[in-house]
Amino acid sequence: VYFFQKRTVLIFSGLLFLFMVLQPPELLSPSKFIQSASAYPFISESKIIDAEAEYGLKNVGTGVIPRDYLESEALIKNSFDRVLEPDESFLNLTVNGSHYYITGRKVPVEYSTYYDFVGNSSELRGLDRMKTNKIQTALIDSVMLEYSPAPLRTYYFYREALIGKAPWKISEDKVILMPPAYFEKAGIPCPDT
């Protein structure tokens, strides 16, 4: 059995190598591929989006990216830019860890998503880092993995995010929890807490 598995892996590896060697150089270089994308029938220049030019998302780059995703990320970035200082960050209680990179904010705790925190010890370390980094805001959404929403998976984080905070619903599925004083920065009325 081991011989056949090894032989199968070698065959597939050889085929993959041949596939890569036989490809035109444009397909192996991402920048050349994007420059000459209109030459390929499966992609055209009209589908290529420059996220920085169109949405102000300089960390995303250029490529074929769903517009609704870019609109959602731009909304999150613009909302945080209204209430946070440039060196200030937030707690991400969503399943998308790229929010930190896209918004240009540092990851203030050990992991970029709530789902990666397993057990109390990692979460308690994260709470200490939140206090050290003076994290006052949190991003939450309705998406969850494996029926494990943030309040169940990371109870301490969720509790910390709720205490003394008010919700700002920035879209149908995204909410920023922040202190009432931050609403004045955003220029919106604070809801009753």
Topology:
Elements: H1 2-22, H2 25-28, H3 30-35, E1 49-50, H4 51-55, E2 62-63, H5 67-83, E3 91-93, H6 99-103, H7 119-132, E4 138-141, H8 150-153, H9 155-162, E5 166-169, E6 174-178, H10 180-186
Parallel strand pairs: 3-4
Antiparallel strand pairs: 1-2, 4-6, 5-6
Compact overview of the structure:
The chain is of the alpha+beta class. 47% of the residues lie in helices and 10% in strands.
List the keywords.
alpha+beta; four-stranded mixed beta sheet; two-stranded antiparallel ribbon; 47% helix
Give structural notes.
The protein has 193 residues and is α+β, with helices and mostly antiparallel strands. The chain contains ten helices and six strands; from the N terminus they run H-H-H-E-H-E-H-E-H-H-E-H-H-E-E-H. The longest helix has 21 residues, at 2-22. It is globular, with a radius of gyration of 22 Å. The termini are far apart. The mean pLDDT is 82.
Rg result:
22 Å
Distance from N terminus to C terminus (CA atoms, Å) equals 64 Å
H/E series: HHHEHEHEHHEHHEEH
Average predicted confidence as pLDDT: 82
Question: What kind of sheet is the major sheet?
Answer: 4 strands, mixed
Question: Which strand order do you get reading across the main beta sheet?
Answer: 3-4-6-5
Shape: globular
What's the number of helices? 10
Structure classification: alpha+beta
As a percent range, the share of strand residues is: 5-15%
Low-confidence runs: none
Total E-strand runs: 6
- Helix fraction? 40-55%
